[in-house]
Specification:
about 25% strand; globular
Amino acid sequence: VGHGDSIFMEFPGGSNMLVDTGEGGDFDMGRFTVVPFLLDRGATSLKYILLTHPHDDHIGGIKSIMDYIKVNTIFDNGLDGKMAGVKCYKTIAKEKGIKIVSLYRGCEIRINKDLTIYVLNPPKLENPDKIYPDINNTSIVLKLLYKGFSILLCGDIEEDAIRNLMNYGDFITVKIIKIPHHGSTKSTLSKQFLDQVDPEVAVISRAEFDRGTAVFKGVAADMRLKGIKVYTTSATGALTVTTDGESYSIKSFK
């Protein structure tokens, strides 16, 4: 989806979840990329759509997705509907009878006895009407745990949320991490965070001509020096990770 996030999960037993929808507007990734992909997969319905935070490159495609795909439940981080993008999907959800559930740290989505998705961020937003100066740090962060396999999806979190996440200790050590904020954060704290996560694989979702390329290249180089396998969607296109709960494989689109 270029500069943005959209992650489709298919679970044992047939249920599914879409995490973020790519951007909307003239380059509506929901309409032109996500919907065709879902239909090609035979996914004419979604049990869950999870929107990590209300920036357009994460929620902009949801209107088109709701136009073409049946949706059961939308998860969001609880920010108020006065924001234009949030107001749009909440209005459509109400018209279509789609449930909206706000998630916060400590929530769990139990898919089956072997697969649980843990919500590690944000803390519960006590005042959804508040104007948050840094919406990125309100991103929903997920740890998916399936038997011996684990993924950490970090949304667009920056240093404040990263620092809070590190309080989880070894719980954030995973096989695969989706790097925060399109690989745009390079700091001592970020390096300490990566040491704690200790992943085998890192995925960066970004457009080929994103701003901050120098920072991104530095982040990717640091990870490769640590022996981490780095995939960037700008180079690989869509990535498919398949796992039986123990071993896993990764295929690129290009």
